[in-house]
Amino acid sequence: MSAIRRKPVGDPLTTTRRHSRVKSGISRVTEKSLFDQVLKVCVLSYRCEPRFRGGGKRQSRDLASLAVSDPTPSFGDQKLPKEAPKLLQQKLNKLALNQGSSDITDPLVRRCFLAFYALLLDPDFSRRIKENRRAEDVVMFFISSSTKELAKSGSQPAETKRLVNYFTATFVKFLIATLREAGFESSCASLIRQLQSYESKLVNDTGNLGESNGSASYSAGLTPTFDVADIHLAKSLGPYFLMSDSLIQKGVSEIKDTATEQAAEADLRLALDQLKQDRFPYYQRQYFGSDDAYQDYKNRAIEAVQTQLAGYGAQSSTQSTTYYYIPEDPRAYGRLLVKICLSHDLKSKSDTLLSKNSIAILTECFNLWQIPSSTRAALVMDVCQELLKLKELPISLIEDSVSFISHVGRENGKREWDTSLWPVCDREVYVLGLKEVLVFVIDLISGCIKSIYEQKPPSIGPYLQILGECVFCSSEWDRVEMIVDMPKVFDNLSLVVKSVAEHKYDEFIDAIPRDHTLDPLHIIELADRIISSAERLQKRYKRPLLEHVPIALIAAKTHFSLFSVDSQSMFTHLMSHMTARHEEPSYDDMTLLYKKLCEIRELYVQVLPGKFPFDLEAAFVKYIRRHVEQSATLATSWVDPAIDADKWEPMDEGEGIMYSSSVADMFTSLGTALAIISELHWDNPVHVAQFYTTLMNGVSVAVCKYASRVFQLFSEELELEDDKKVKYKSRQEKWMAMAKNAMAGSAPLTPYQFKKTTCIKLNDIETAQAKLDEIEAQLDSEKLAKVLEGVNTNAGPGKIVTKDTTNKKRAYLFTIRIVQAENLKACDMNGLSDPYVTLVDQATRKQIGKTRTIFEELNPVWDETFEIATGGPSWLTATVWDEDSLGSHDLCGRAFLRLDPAAFGDFIAQDYWLDLDTQGKLLVNITMESERDDVRFYFGKALRTLVRCENDMIKVMVDKLTAFIQYSLSRETMKSLISPGRGKLKEFNMESVSSWLSSTSISNVPLTPTMIEDAITPLFDYLNESFATLAVGLTDEIRLKVMSRTWRVVLTTLTSLLLPRLSYKRTSKTQLSAKEVDIVFTWLSSLRDFFHHDGAGPSLEVLHSQQYQELMRVPVYYDLSNEELKDECEKLSSSTFKALQDKTYVGLPELIKRKNTVMAHRNRTVMRKQKERIRNAKREAPQNEDIILCILRMRGELDFVARRIKQKERLQQTLATESLVAKGRK
């Protein structure tokens, strides 16, 4: 492409007269006269076939043979080794120096070999052979050099043919020996076999040839029949000239006696004489641009004629003054023949530009007609450009055509491409052909430009490639450039681009209404189309076309220039109609419109000089809030990059900064967004408060998303990597095996190795709470809310009455806590299930949440919370699944849940037992609160999400310890204390454990506290190692929370040893003996001291929780009789009523009623104060009745238990109804 230059138009062609002469000559040739001339050549070729003369082939029939060439063998795709030139040089060098033994003793043979050796020493020739590695080329050059040497020696033409064959056979034998001696016999086996076959053929064709006198005897071959069926070339003329075989046979019969070798030899001798005397009529000195060019042509032509004469053995001395085979105007005949062959092959859908038959015909004719390679190349170019304009030559074949022309012009690669040595008329034809190709391709490119806006426009690349490889890189490009006004070409292409762009803009603008229906979205869509079309063109056409026509830039200038004027008119038109209709434009529409027009303005400035005609700020000043809206929307986009770039390493562990980069980066971005408002220097405090409220909405969403992403990564990291490889059926069985090893002392205890990155993620959530609280303190959400409360006193607290929000649909935030399930369907072969719950919105089919899996449990407890925002009543599907690691998950049961804001208007948490469609039931707890456009609400929502995320993460970490705790604090461990002396298990599974337990008897040996504590020493070690691991990565505050959560698991596990879960279903659990109860509370005491750890762990206030106090009260009722327990239960009914009353918040202060709401989490200070006030205002009594009912269930008093549970449920429903009525009265 760099070859294109802007030049003045000129006309350096000074030989148009001669070119006209060539054209006129072409017009006089008829197909009939051409056929007669071609038929003569075919008959001559037939006569000279080896079968009739005993010699080898005269001409090759490959694609390159259209150039002047010597007879060449064909060895297929077999290549010589790359070392072949060097090996031949070495062996020929020994021959030249008479070193070593050699079969080549004849002086004439030796001269021919040494002549080839001299040729091989030429670096260019040696490099060409090394690159091509064609054995045919090596043999061909040997034949050529041998022919020249024989001509110098004065050999008769009849002898020369025979001697060349004999010498070639000797050379082939020499080449085979060279390959074998170098060790290529196996790798070049196929090539050697072909060379041997060719050698044998040459020897057979040569006959008996003695080296003593250097001459050969002639042995006649077969006799020609002149039957057209036997004349391959003549028979193939039929499709070209539309003649039948009979007509061709007739023509053959007429000329078979005259179309002889003697006539050919006479033509050649006449041509040789005329060339030597500068009288050859078709190529004389005046046809060339210089003496050197003519002399070059003359030398090559004489050499070619002498080579052809050497191939005839007639030894005729007949002299002739006219030509028999060479037509009157070889150039004209040749052009028509090329056109006929090329047209025929194109119509026959040939795979190549010219078929083998066409190549053979053209080669035979052009060689005999003495047409040089330059003329051949020019004729093919002339015909190709003509067929191209007639659309007969496909554009896809242009490159093949030029490549073929170049190959022909270089004489099979023997010569360099130098058109300065060509006849002037040939050069003119070639230049005009390039010019026609250029014009034709430019027209195609212009057509492609008209389709630049289509979805899949035609590619310009192939056309540029054609110009680059066929025209611009040509040595004649300077001459082409002189006859083609390239600046005008570029200007015309630019005008085409501009015209197409204007037409496309008209299509865009025509889609815009011109009446009162014009909407801001119409202008936005128009701008979008203009921008997208500009971006699309920029991607498609990154570089200027032909380095002078920037398509994308011209189109963009056209569109932006037109739109800059029309956009102001459209906006004025739009606002005038809205004002007439007393309508306010949509805030969102105007925000988008301003953004889009700013984008257009930025692009306008980039491509056009001057200022954007439309003053956007003056028109959109009241819509400046769109900056805040945009920032709020973009807030969530900062989350993913921050997390993706995080390596989850402490920012500065030495300084105690244990959080990672993601939380720091995200809150830095959030701080930058908040700074946008302060940088506005806005004087209206109401607007400022509105801006912060809007922005905090986006910040809240971003923080919630961050918490969700971090929790997801946290959960994935905690999944055991060896779950897929372990041979145990479940995680529970694996942990039991680990516990067995620890108890038995057969393997060292391996605590769960929490990764440091896991701890960092938990630290990040804690840090996010602190940073969010800092932002709240900086903005002072209470102050901002008070400013907005004064805007409209009728709006209520936190409400902002603007034209944009009065009609906004009310939204509700539901919090759904999946508590537990009972009596689930057993899906596994062990009679248990591995349940988890999914919540799905029926309207959107979107999954709201998914709990963790509780392994091997039919009465699982999840206690996990999820949120969903709705605009009205909606239905959810709660599905309990059984996890199966080896296949698809099984369905345990399904239930439906309706979320109706009317049923939750008092923000009271309500429990629902959902009956599953298979068996069992699911307990969910639901609360609801209305979403408000209040900065405090957004802070509260974000902080509550972070708090819940932290709790869930701690819960997941503690789950990793739960299985070991449950196994260590089990009835089996107690029995091992009560029944000492039992042997060690050989196998550890549920069957062997059962057999092992039943085979022992209870010992009456008293147990000391030390003995009891020693039984769970592995648990102490395990917890100690686990907490030590966590202490390395967690902050002290989070570490204490994890320990406190683990303590709750310990309490729950010990409680399960004493009591079954509260239900009216029969249980297999039996009451513990006094010794076993003593073991449980000894464990409780020692574990409490272990967790407290002299104040390094959780405080005693935390450890002595309500659950702990309830557990301590179990012995009070454990030894009472059934009747005593029933009486006590009746006495406790009043306290039970009060507890239920407290749970539904009837009669309690508003603060307690909303302790779990979003507004109660607006900052950490409020949360801390609420906890303290709630703790002082509400002291929940231990659930003594539940303890009694659990004991009675264990003793089989199921009817009584069921009756009391149902009474409590009815009472709870009644209190909930009263709560709703009380709320309605307010």
TrEMBL record:
Protein known as: C2 domain-containing protein
Record-linked SUPFAM superfamilies: C2 domain (Calcium/lipid-binding domain, CaLB)
InterPro entries with a match to the protein in the record: C2_dom, C2_domain_sf, Glucose_resp_signaling, MUN_dom, Munc13_1, Munc13_dom-2
Pfam families in alphabetical order: C2 (PF00168), MUN (PF06292)
TM helices/strands, residue ranges: none
PANTHER family for the chain: ADENYLATE CYCLASE ACTIVATION PROTEIN GIT1, C2 DOMAIN PROTEIN (AFU_ORTHOLOGUE AFUA_7G02350)
Domain of life, per lineage: Eukaryota
Region (Disordered) residue spans: 1-22, 52-80
SMART domains noted in UniProt: C2
